[in-house]
């Protein structure tokens, strides 16, 4: 009994941390997918991707359909693969293909992130003169997702698995930003029943605050106590998160539409205006 007690004390926190990381990472990915369900449903019905299908169904999509389809396909494949990867990493599924799938996800991640950056640049036309706060935020999130993904690979190869997990969760949190921000925006639309996502601001800043809180709840304490670079990793990501929040809220204050509808529009899909 005296020999078994210390082992139990050591193992249980590791299992608990893995479970917390797995639940947190899956929560990010599920919310990411949920945020794009309306757009995917609208695409399946009309063959067009829209930011806000509830209010913007009649808008003409200016971005190339082929580019949107490529980005959507690679992003969905990456997200589904990431769910499997997380399940293998925390022990919910056999780990036999964990390393191989990780390298595959790096390839699909680069394709998805780079295509997302390209679409953001296309939307800021003429580029770079038309780059605004939203484009800067999206560029920053894509860069952080890519860097954290590559860092996760490096830490895995160095067999620093705890830091590998933390970098992977940070990557997932930044990847989730576009989908979760839409989910937050759609929920806020119930407060402003005649306002599309482009009719009010602040929902992206609120999303980043939520993402930071979710990450800190998932593995912030373990990151902070990491014996290597975990604390620096958290600080760098939090600094950029604060910059994005300040940038988004500043834009909203300047435009006078911080969580306040500036342009009303009719609901044109699914929901019935009352």
Automatic annotation (TrEMBL):
Keywords: Membrane, Transmembrane, Transmembrane helix. The chain crosses the membrane at residues 21-43, 75-94, 101-124, 130-154, 166-188, 200-224. This is Uncharacterized protein. It comes from Polarella glacialis.
């Amino acid at each position: 009994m005296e020999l078994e007690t210390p082992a139990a004390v050591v193992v249980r926190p590791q299992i608990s941390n893995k479970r917390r990381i797995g639940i947190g990472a899956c929560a990010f990915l599920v919310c990411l997918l949920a945020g794009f369900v309306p757009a995917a449903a609208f695409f399946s019905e009309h063959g067009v991707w829209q930011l806000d299908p509830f209010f913007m169904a009649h808008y003409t999509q200016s971005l190339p359909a082929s580019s949107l389809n490529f980005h959507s396909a690679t992003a969905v494949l990456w997200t589904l693969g990431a769910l499997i990867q997380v399940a293998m990493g925390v022990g919910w599924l056999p780990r036999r293909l964990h390393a191989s799938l990780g390298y595959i996800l790096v390839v699909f991640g680069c394709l998805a992130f780079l295509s997302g950056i390209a679409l953001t640049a296309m939307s800021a036309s003429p580029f770079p003169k038309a780059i605004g706060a939203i484009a800067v935020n999206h560029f920053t999130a894509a860069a952080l997702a890519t860097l954290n993904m590559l860092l996760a690979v490096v830490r895995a190869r160095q067999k620093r698995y705890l830091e590998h997990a933390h970098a992977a969760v940070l990557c997932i949190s930044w990847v989730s930003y576009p989908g979760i921000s839409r989910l937050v925006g759609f929920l806020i639309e119930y407060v402003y029943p005649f306002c599309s996502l482009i009719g009010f601001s602040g929902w992206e800043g609120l999303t980043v605050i939520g993402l930071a809180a979710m990450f800190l709840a998932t593995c912030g304490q373990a990151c902070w106590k990491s014996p290597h670079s975990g604390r620096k990793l958290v600080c760098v990501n939090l600094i950029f998160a604060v910059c994005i929040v300040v940038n988004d809220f500043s834009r909203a204050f300047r435009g006078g539409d911080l969580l306040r509808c500036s342009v009303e529009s009719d609901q044109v899909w699914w929901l019935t205006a009352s």
